[in-house]
Amino acid sequence: MEVVRERGDSEREALGFLPRCVYSEAAAQGKLYVATVNVGGEEFYAGHLLFGGRFPHLRVFQVYVVPEFRHQNIGVDLVKVLTADAEKQYCITISARVAADLPANAFWEQLAFPVVRTERGGASTGRLINVRRRELDSPTLFSTVRSDGDLARPAACRVEQPIYALDINVLLDVLKDRPRAEHARRLLTASMSGILRLFVAHEFVHELSRATQTPSIDPVVRLAMALPQFTEVPDLLLGDLKGELADIIFPSRSKAGALRERDHSDLAHLATMIYHSASGFVTSDEAVLRKRGELNAKYGIDVVGPAELAELYMPRQWTAAEMSAVSLEGTPIEIAEMGEGKRKEVENFLSSRAMPSEQISRALSSGQSACPRHRVTVSFGNVLMGFASWEAARGPNASSEAWLAVEPDTMAELACDALIEAMSRDVCATRPASLFLRVDPASPEARESAVAHGFRAMSAGSGLPRYEKFCLGAVITPGNWVASRGLLSSAFGVGLPESPPIYDGPNTIITVKSQEGVLERLSVKDFEAHFGPVILMLDGRPVSIVPIHRSYADQLLGTGIQASLLPSPEAAARRERLYLGSPRTLSVLTPGSLILFYESIGNNDGRGAIVAAAQVVRSAVCDRSALDSGDTRRGVLSSEEIGSLSASGRTALTFFNQLMKLENPIGLRRLRAMGCADGANFVTARRIDQSAAMAIIEEGKPNVRLL
């Protein structure tokens, strides 16, 4: 250890200064590699590599090789060992910060660490710093199928729970039942449930101790002492960090030398979390929250309020997956959360599908209050035909493990549609999430349906087949492209192009960079399947408004203000649905175009507003006499109603998916102001311009929840 530290200190110009404790702590954590050479039977130190960071992103702090042993690939070997170990642990990237004027840049270039950005270094040096990063070859969504002998990523791939530093005011919110107490309680529940980790600094306990006359017996202090604590920051580093932070957060008082005791306490909390590379600092202090952008830019830390973080890890929204419907033949369809009284029946059903007992046990588990599990059954005429189970997705890197089993039957496709749509929309209702699905091995319908919904096979090994997909749950526009790109990258390591493509038909290509650095060319159609529910509103993509009567909208789109007491048609449980209209509408409802559904005023019972958005999958014109029941069961019109659509006896079929309801329906007056409506008021389908479509989406706030 002394040799490593001395060598590191001898090259401060290139390697920077690190306190003694950094080396010992890195060694204790397995984050310090040492290379030795054997000369004449005696072992000599030849170099070292010191790294850190937070999973799944590692960072190299030092690479050093003794001058007499250089040009023997020792440094290269050290980095290669780190890369191999990181890939075994499913890390995504390794980065290094290298001063632009150092010859070491050639070394990193040789090892395929390209410069991703350049930053200014400290004020004292005036250097430019090259931030170099290498994408690792770890299993991801876009990995090829692996054999049994290969290392396969766990089905419920979860990154290490993030660590947040807790400010004292958040704990006091709970203890004193302040207005923000509810948010703080949810955070504590998430922490105790293992969804995230909350730590405190030594200053946290010291501050509470100073506020009481009897700290040794004060219950609040004793509670604080029981919380997980960071180790103390070395005095030298603590002083430097506090000085830098004071200039950012309290510039006036810092310049005047008038920092208050509470200011020093806040600075100590922040310095501690920066030193320990915590994910973020949870505080309700507005002075600190106002500087979140600067703190993130300089130190790469996140400063969040308790309400914001609570909604990320413990969202209050929980919607039961329940629906009563009826098939085209009149068979009752029931989609419902499984009650404990039905456990034995479902267990027998899963056993009959050859699901292993350990998987049955996990699929039937109810989860916990902080991370409950949906357990949903589909029954046709009181006969159990399908079952799915999935976890509530929590956190910024949200993922959910899911199971799907269906009875091979003529209605298996409908059962799969209902269950996969329910889970896909539920997990991304508050933020993007990934789904890891285990599928009934005896049901080809389940596998085919999973692929149709955008899942990709993860493993060809024994046990239940596993599939994976991402669920974005949003409309992506040129205006929010950069934000969406950043979210995908930070949450899942998936890279989108820097700018959105111009739409040139359904086969418009989007080049997606996987977590392992592989570029894959996806058509818009494939992208929306793999990342759905999602709608890409690209420049040049046609958008049309189509009219629909309120009664049909309630049944086909599920946009009714009040839930109906009558069962829905089976189309409401399907992924792909059918809009029927006059053949002349097909000139604007082309495959790949987007549609906005306008609920007509009718006999003053309709809202006269756009209520939903979707994407056209395919369209056709058909003689009414030749309509296939497999198609019409995806719609809600009777044969008599279909006959009234056109005097020619021909009907236009427009199949759509990616349906999203608007939280804020856009009324006729607003549509006229946008130039979308005239005297005809949407008697038939009509194309609208891009700017109006963007405004409708922005104001309407599409939502993926349908059930």
Structure explained in plain terms:
With 707 residues, the chain is of the alpha+beta class. The chain has five domains: 2-135, Aminopeptidase (3-Layer(aba) Sandwich); 163-313, 5'-nuclease (Rossmann fold); 323-471, Gcn5-related N-acetyltransferase (GNAT) (Aminopeptidase, 3-Layer(aba) Sandwich), CATH 3.40.630.30; 474-536, no CATH class; 543-703, Archaeosine Trna-guanine Transglycosylase, Chain: A, domain 4 (Roll). The strands form six sheets. Strands 11, 12, 13, 14, 15, 16, 17, 18, 19 and 25 form a ten-stranded mixed sheet that branches. Strands 24, 26, 27, 28, 29, 30 and 31 form a seven-stranded mixed sheet that branches. Strand 5 (115-120) and strand 6 form a beta hairpin. The longest helix has 16 residues, at 412-427. The termini are far apart.
Task: Write out key terms for the chains shown.
single chain; 707 residues; alpha+beta; Aminopeptidase; Rossmann fold; 5 domains; 7-stranded mixed beta sheet; 33% helix; elongated
What's the arrangement of secondary structure elements?
Layout: H1 2-10, H2 12-15, H3 20-28, E1 32-39, E2 42-54, E3 57-65, H4 74-88, E4 93-99, H5 104-110, E5 115-120, E6 128-135, E7 163-166, H6 168-175, H7 181-192, E8 197-199, H8 202-210, H9 219-226, H10 235-249, H11 251-255, H12 261-275, E9 280-282, H13 286-289, H14 292-299, E10 302-304, H15 306-313, E11 323-326, E12 332-337, H16 343-352, H17 357-364, E13 367-368, E14 371-380, E15 383-391, E16 399-406, H18 412-427, E17 433-439, H19 444-452, E18 456-459, E19 466-471, E20 474-476, H20 481-492, E21 509-513, E22 519-523, H21 524-530, E23 534-536, E24 543-548, H22 550-556, E25 568-569, E26 577-581, E27 594-599, E28 609-623, H23 629-632, H24 639-643, E29 650-667, H25 668-673, E30 686-688, H26 690-700, E31 702-703
Parallel strand pairs: 3-4, 7-8, 7-9, 9-10, 11-25, 16-17, 20-23, 24-27
Antiparallel strand pairs: 1-2, 2-3, 4-6, 5-6, 11-12, 12-14, 13-14, 14-15, 15-16, 17-19, 18-19, 21-22, 24-30, 26-29, 27-28, 28-29, 29-31
